[in-house]
Amino acid sequence: MTDYVIPAPQTVSIPVRGGGQFPVRRIYCIGRNYAAHSIEMGDNPDRDPPFFFQKNANNLDASGEFPYPPMSQDVHYEVELLVALKEGGTNIPVAQALDHVWGYAPSLDMTRRDLQGEAKKKGRPWEVGKAFERSAPMGPLEAASDVGHLSSGRIELQVNGAVAQEGDLNQMIWKVPEMIAYLSDYFALEAGDVIMSGTPAGVGPIVRGDVMDVRIEGLQPLSVNVI
Q: What does pTM read for this prediction?
């Protein structure tokens, strides 16, 4: 038994539909991966090299509740497809990338937009706006062996019953296999890594009491209450 000098942090895990838990190592998030969202954020929608930022593994939350975070007055929703890897590697070819995927889940990349905006203006990292507690609500993972690999299909977010975001997974600028291959050129990916694959246009603010409903074709829906 390892003689730790403080109690060891618990392994972060997320639920799997049908039973079991998926242990999480890292979370990679791609920025501006739908052309319309790239335009609404003031960027170029062309296939420039992708860029990624990270959330922390313990930012994932499957409780169905999102506590409005402190130190912000402008918190935005971003609906995303979450991709969970069952194995890793380096320099993974695009043609083999989907062999590394365990499954998929609906998720939200919640963002303290005001704090992110301040960081951008000063050329600073985004973690204060992105990697805060419970900033990645998600539904249970579903195995690719059950649902297949999701390369197309409607992705939608409703807020209080009204459609706020909508698009199709095939509108991603960088597809899931390309993201996996690109990341593996820069990082040693491992089993337990998670990729949040970007959001379509229509991001916007939420307030306490809102209900966010995520719908991704092929997956069970996710409902999250803002508390």
A: 0.94
pLDDT, tens only, 104-144: 999 999 999 999 999 999 999 999 999 999 999 999 999 99
Alpha-carbon distance values, 66 to 96, 132, 136 (Å): 36, 11, 9
CB 12 within 8 A of CB 58: yes
- Alpha-carbon 84 to chain mean position: 10
Q: For residues 202 and 188, give the distance between their C-alpha atoms in angstroms, rounded to a whole number.
A: 33
Among the listed residues 85, 84, 72, the one whose alpha carbon sits nearest the alpha carbon of residue 115: 72
Give me the sign of the Cα torsion angle 25, 31, 36, 41.
Answer: positive
Starting at the edge strand that comes first in sequence, how are the strands of the sheet with 27-30 ordered? 52-55, 27-30, 194-196, 79-85, 101-108, 142-143
